[in-house]
Amino acid sequence: MIYYLGGYLQQFWGPARLLQSYIVLISLTLYSGFFLSFKLIPKMYKFLPHDRGREFTINAEVAKGKPTGAGVIFITMFVLLCIIFVPLNFFQCGIIFLTWITMLTGFLDDKSISSWGEYLKGFLDLVICVAASILIYNLLLKMNPEGKIVFWIPFVSGTPENNFGIIVHPAVFFAISIIVLWVSINVTNCSDGVDGLSGTLVLIALITLGIIFYFVLGHIDITKYLQIPHIKDGAGWASITFTLAGVLMGYLWHNAFPSSVLMGDAGSRALGFFIGSMVIISCNPFLFIATSTIMFLNGGTGLLKVFLLRFFKIKIFSKVRFPLHDHLRKNKGWSPTQVLIKFMIMQILITIATIGILLKVR
Fold it and tell me: Which residue range forms the structural domain that includes residue 145?
């Protein structure tokens, strides 16, 4: 809305054209998201469900009874701010809508008296991941003049005819897309067990993705120099990403240790879905390493452990408690603050190294 309003007003007042600058829109939506989330979330505590406590979790009694499901607030704010500040196309509206739907499934679980079953949540995740993959597939087809799906990966250089990427068969694309989306949703959810941890790691991921989409993938000259596919609407995707970062920062203000509110499945699952979607839209699934390595090691290895034991009777990491932050707190004596700071440092180091490899080692 603001973008088009700027286009209309500039005929009467020249400086209004700034409202059509993406960097201005990013600044406006990020700060608006932070302040709205910061101010409104505490006022909504009384309407939120209360945490039931997680079985086998370290210090579960500390979180028990706290308002949870705050994701329903800041994800809804995110949707509204995108409508107000970002000029959206069909595909962007679709991803934003599916992010909200993912939030809704998590919030209904947060609100229910007894937790939903793992298989029901897994099935809902699968439906959402398939829908998102179909949407992104058609987006990538539209982005490539040749009407083909291409990925850019490290150690391989494509040709200009293939948009500097390698051609990916549709079946391979859907397999990779669904796996990345499903894993991203669940590892982000599993990392939400220490005050500020999941939100901070997601914030690093969002800022990383926003910078890559705005300054690299959305810039035609830089993509030609680096020999990677150009995303024409990269600035628009960056604006959406920074909008989510803004509302998340407002939430983190209240989730810092000792927290007064929790995002619940409503927040963590939606955030994981959005990260996975942006990774696939970037045409480089290896970008997931730059955004979510620590979340995967923290929660994803636990999912792998349970999967192998339940379906194949294979035992791995039998002496390690998962999520990994529980093991470090119980067995190594780390405090919640130590877990947060050390995980954050490791993710930043991994992000910087991975981005360097992905962009320059071609």
Answer: 28-360
